[in-house]
Amino acid sequence: MAAAEEFFPGIARIQYEPSAGPGDVLCFKHYNADEVLMGRTMEDWLRFSVCYWHSFCGTGADPFGFQTLHRPWNEGTPMESAKKRLHAAFEFFTKLGVKYYTFHDRDMAPEGSTLEESNKNLDEITDLALQLQNQTGVKVLWVTCNLFAHPRYMNGAATNPDCHVLAYAGAQVKKGLDVAKKLGAENFVFWGGREGFLSIHNTDVAAELNHMAAFFKMAVKYKEKIGAKFQFLIEPKPKEPCRHQYDYDAMSVIGFLKHYGLDSHFKLNIEPNHTTLAGHSYEHDIVMASAFGMLGSVDSNTGSPDLGWDTDQFPMDIRNVTMVMKTIIEQGGLQPGGLNFDAKVRRESTDLEDLFIAHVGAMDAFARGLRNAVRIIEDGIVSEMMKKRYSSFSHGFGLKVVEGSSSLEDMEAFIKQNGEPKITSGKQEKYELIFNHYI
Amino acid sequence: MAAAEEFFPGIARIQYEPSAGPGDVLCFKHYNADEVLMGRTMEDWLRFSVCYWHSFCGTGADPFGFQTLHRPWNEGTPMESAKKRLHAAFEFFTKLGVKYYTFHDRDMAPEGSTLEESNKNLDEITDLALQLQNQTGVKVLWVTCNLFAHPRYMNGAATNPDCHVLAYAGAQVKKGLDVAKKLGAENFVFWGGREGFLSIHNTDVAAELNHMAAFFKMAVKYKEKIGAKFQFLIEPKPKEPCRHQYDYDAMSVIGFLKHYGLDSHFKLNIEPNHTTLAGHSYEHDIVMASAFGMLGSVDSNTGSPDLGWDTDQFPMDIRNVTMVMKTIIEQGGLQPGGLNFDAKVRRESTDLEDLFIAHVGAMDAFARGLRNAVRIIEDGIVSEMMKKRYSSFSHGFGLKVVEGSSSLEDMEAFIKQNGEPKITSGKQEKYELIFNHYI
Amino acid sequence: MAAAEEFFPGIARIQYEPSAGPGDVLCFKHYNADEVLMGRTMEDWLRFSVCYWHSFCGTGADPFGFQTLHRPWNEGTPMESAKKRLHAAFEFFTKLGVKYYTFHDRDMAPEGSTLEESNKNLDEITDLALQLQNQTGVKVLWVTCNLFAHPRYMNGAATNPDCHVLAYAGAQVKKGLDVAKKLGAENFVFWGGREGFLSIHNTDVAAELNHMAAFFKMAVKYKEKIGAKFQFLIEPKPKEPCRHQYDYDAMSVIGFLKHYGLDSHFKLNIEPNHTTLAGHSYEHDIVMASAFGMLGSVDSNTGSPDLGWDTDQFPMDIRNVTMVMKTIIEQGGLQPGGLNFDAKVRRESTDLEDLFIAHVGAMDAFARGLRNAVRIIEDGIVSEMMKKRYSSFSHGFGLKVVEGSSSLEDMEAFIKQNGEPKITSGKQEKYELIFNHYI
Amino acid sequence: MAAAEEFFPGIARIQYEPSAGPGDVLCFKHYNADEVLMGRTMEDWLRFSVCYWHSFCGTGADPFGFQTLHRPWNEGTPMESAKKRLHAAFEFFTKLGVKYYTFHDRDMAPEGSTLEESNKNLDEITDLALQLQNQTGVKVLWVTCNLFAHPRYMNGAATNPDCHVLAYAGAQVKKGLDVAKKLGAENFVFWGGREGFLSIHNTDVAAELNHMAAFFKMAVKYKEKIGAKFQFLIEPKPKEPCRHQYDYDAMSVIGFLKHYGLDSHFKLNIEPNHTTLAGHSYEHDIVMASAFGMLGSVDSNTGSPDLGWDTDQFPMDIRNVTMVMKTIIEQGGLQPGGLNFDAKVRRESTDLEDLFIAHVGAMDAFARGLRNAVRIIEDGIVSEMMKKRYSSFSHGFGLKVVEGSSSLEDMEAFIKQNGEPKITSGKQEKYELIFNHYI
């Protein structure tokens, strides 16, 4: 294997060509990395990241079908293939013009027959990753440990009924934290795919939650010990593979973290496809997490609202991404988080170029979302309507409520004096029409 | 109107007749109030309650159709009708043999044209209610305020963008708390039907959540001031009438309460029909709330899993009610909460006797659920399987995890010494088969 | 009451002002009625219609709340109010610039205490409607009979277990057909809101389907007898108010119609909010009905994908309406059907102007959808990709399949000769990216 | 490999032991094969079948995890393993006491590198299968072809945009029909897992439906040619793996079949887990297919109503299976169809005995369902209530409706003479309570 091998021949660095035609799919028509909006470059607002597992490890297999995606980097022994994959990935990041990537420990390097061997594999491959990062300037948005694919985790990792499995997960996370530090990852994600239950009949929920909290506390302690600075993130998902996952949605995780006194150590990595599976609207958990000061990062993807499982499609709905970007701008950006494309090409999209097309489509969609959100905010029409809508809380009786100095007795007195409130239109359709103006 | 008027002529006190035939629907075949199971009477375990709104105020109107239920107690002026309704209700409670009822302020007494008039109506009707309670021994399980039906609340009560509406809600709750104390209610429920949003476009989520927390704090303070002893309960519901309700499910409410430091003042009133609308299994929120020590009471009803709105049907599924009763027994009962039938006869069930049949069916279902759960627990087969499943946490390394004294470094050392954990079957089907033995 | 009374003072005829600003919500920025696209005016492609029930009869009541919308035309006796309402509606149609409206018999004129009285009311009000139609040029897109709101229909109309109710429904439909003919309606719709079941336990599905088919046959016969030319349409809906409605979705209705030999007499009126409630994507039933040659008309509205009931919101999603218009153009238009706004302002949208804003927003959205679809079709890039994708069926072996002259034996021979087919990328992301170019 | 090898050592023939205790999970407590109910043995009513794919080919892999189930019969070359698997399966069928099994062509014998090789493999393995069938008396309930797992089918089989793939599917089905005939299969199933679309953007629905119909017509012709007597069945599923599958649910398939004149050649194989994914109640499609005379067979399994994908769990809900058996008895049985357990042990159920426990649990559940349904029918209380409910259609005006000899004019005359119908309670809760008596 030579570093010089090219995995995407015929595809050059993707350029910004705003006037390209409808059939031109290998250029950006909206994403212009260095363009400044509201004092920051598009690149800084969007902080795009490519995910390693779907885009470089995905096979196209699904529960009803075999592998469809045969990638040129999957050749040789597992370790040889791991290295080729890394070269292919960095070629992709660079040609696409994305500055971040994310990975699970087991995507990066193959699991060995012992923990020691797995760790050794990881050391070897991450040496190469570090070298490629330094060569290209591409960085790690976040690292996560795969605590769900190996059969040992079938009944849970941190919530497994067998403490031996818990220990394995802990050992794996210890190494994951070391690797994250080594590579300068800006965040570290926990996704508890098997932390939940298949059947309530064989599950002691209270015990499992206690074990999960204990597990997180150990991770916090070890992170502090090694002096790592990355942000811990929990990624909620309601179900799949579990019937019920404890980290159901943003509010479930917030409730859990606050119950166990862990909330100052974690933020949330919200994936909209998980949000919609939890029965919420696309932007719901992003808005909710942000309202509680807990929005750390976003796994940018989408599902189809008529489907009940995680499809991890590339996000291309302009309305949705506008809503996401509006929330992100309003909280001042996502740093150190970003927009990670936890998305995969369809298993029927078997051409190598489809990997580029999909990312270009999603990046351009988000660039439009950013532009739209900026226009909405800079125009100020919506914010002015909102300010007026809530104006009663900025003075007098309303201000007392905000300040916590009113009482039910005050309220009764206020009503005895002022009588029935006026009915005020919510004007939802007007807001919708105006929103449509911008998209 | 004379107290002697009989509203359910031809229907006598419902009796326990365990050997009655399939067509006998006006007797209990399973519910035997005084029978003792696991040291407590069935009545004490089940603490059944009848809800006032559906059963005595319901008209059968739905969004696509007019009133179908014409009740003999709805005659005369609003206040006359309110009194007749109360007599009818107490006749019903007594004949059915249920010791508790629940109501909204506005079910009990008609809203007047001013707050003062509404309060006066409430005083007058609750005087009669108190008298009937004393005569019959029937008690109030909980009171709640209707903060959603009046147009003033269309944009929310505690979360209304207009503080004037907030004040009205506060004044109304103040009176509701007074009434609850007067009638000796054992709990007081908040259901925030309009506390959420229809459109994210016109909503300031963070502000509304702050206002809602401020509102709850005032209620806590006033309850303490009047020396009331009832338990505060919040009833989660994910949506309907709102598109999104802040009290989405058990974990959302727990997260909210803990964030605002309110968790010691509230427990949850779980309604399984709301739980299933939130995308969970029937028993999920009961199990979850119980695991967090927050299960206060249950609104016993059911939906149809294929429908996306609240149908408030009478709970008759033996499997489901067995799961509920098992959880309740395991936490030592529901006191001061109970099983309130927040359920309504179908609008097509227009016979007066249908009201009895529906309650009898649900009470008998729960009695079967209780008997099943008691047998499961007393047999001990399932609990023995569970004990074995989690046994690794009762000693050695597992116990250190439970006690919070282990670390990631310990875990790594444990794995380096002990290697790969053993794969252990979860045996879900065995648990299911055994569960079926009991139902 | 004088015809000269103005119900929407201060609102003038809505104009096309393509360069209006974001806050200008009482003008069209995209809908330009007379502009010609692909050989037809926008008005002809879109055939907008306003629905009478939501926009002129709606009260804003919901299952959890009382009336919020107090309209100036609801004054006086029921018949006086019916006339005012008609004047208000025609003022609205005219100011909005819409050429069609739709109504249920019972929206138009109040139900009397007997069938005769109801019919008389209908005669009187439709005389006025006809006069206003002639004055304004506004026409009836379709008439339908309300066979679901009156308590007599609570257990179904054509599928009621009591033939007496069936007879009532038949008598009502007979009059409805007469009225439709009198007013020159271009279509007649059947929506079977109560044709289904609440409980399978008390339902004889086969019998009820037979009765429903018999009912439709009588309607066909009577329509022919009176020489009416309007198109019969069935509007599918999966559930609500029923737990299960027989006309679940497009394919269910097609199956029913073909089973009973009724398919040449009916087409479908597809409502996307019903489609999504049936678990399909927004455009699914429109595409499906069109593929089977059965798409007759569209009830243009939308739901929220995270909600499980019919919200009848104004359609404003540009992606969705583009998909709808593309399908409509590809089948050569909807005539004699149209785009009927079976949509209601939110109950919180209490200002009279909200009724205009909502319609303007939806009309502009559809105008954008039409423009987008025209560009997609005229550019030909997508259709060229599609043509290539299916090209193997235009000649040789594929053509034999299309013509029905191939056999399994031929297929086996073909494979023995040609071996394994080539894997061809489906290129979904490329299609999505290109689609996004147009919206 | 020796036929004498035992794959389930320690497990003997499962016996009927009605008084076994709750922890005894390797015996039937309800299923007594030879017991006669309503003139037929339980075995004849239930016609249980074991599915080959889940129970003998399943690996426990899921989209988030690797293989967990390591079976002793998966050893050696693919062909050796195929033979071991067959022996293991027949040992299982015999020990379990089930008389039928079902399989996909590719479960039975490994796919070769050419069609010819695949067919040869199939010939060799089915020779052995035939021999084992003759030895044990176990028969084939149905055969089906796997037209979804191989990458060639990723864009569809009969609906693939490339006619070359269609040809491959046809060649494979030809062989499948030959095999089915050879083994004396009583039915042949088509499940169109990839017959639908992932994206409407790249799909020509009308063309694909035409191709699918042409494909079915060829299968009908070939079946007739070889003189096969098995029943053709189509198995509906709404989605997964496709976003939308054309055979969405029972009514969709009925509509399709009738449109293309194929309905006399096919019946339906209903899988309740698919039914619930389509948004219906568990029993819906069984009831619907039966009402249209199209219920041919049942894939007995269940999902969890809170999950949006096919979990293929073993059916253990007594209420549900009672409803299914009631429908089956009422249509006079399922012959030549049966109850095929298209169900898999959870991937966490890694013990070999779990395979037995799961089947025993499901068979016992269905035996209870059968017993319950027989009691409901024999008691006659429910049928008497139903007869009364629909009695108006057995004479006079109602009978004219049934006979198709009434008209809208008759109906109007009837109402003018008889006025308003009486309101009659639907008595849903009474039906539910009585139903509960039997379960």
UniProtKB/TrEMBL annotation, chains A, B, C, D:
It is an enzyme of class 5 (isomerase). The keyword Membrane does not apply. It comes from the Eukaryota. It catalyses: alpha-D-xylose = alpha-D-xylulofuranose. Its EC number is 5.3.1.5. GO terms for molecular function: metal ion binding; xylose isomerase activity. The keyword Nucleotide-binding does not apply. Keywords: Carbohydrate metabolism, Isomerase, Metal-binding, Xylose metabolism. GO terms for biological process: D-xylose metabolic process. InterPro entries: Xyl_isomerase-like_sf (IPR036237), Xylose_isom_bac (IPR013452), Xylose_isomerase (IPR001998). Belongs to the xylose isomerase family. HAMAP family: Xylose_isom_A (MF_00455). This is Xylose isomerase. It comes from Betta splendens (Siamese fighting fish). The gene is LOC114843702.
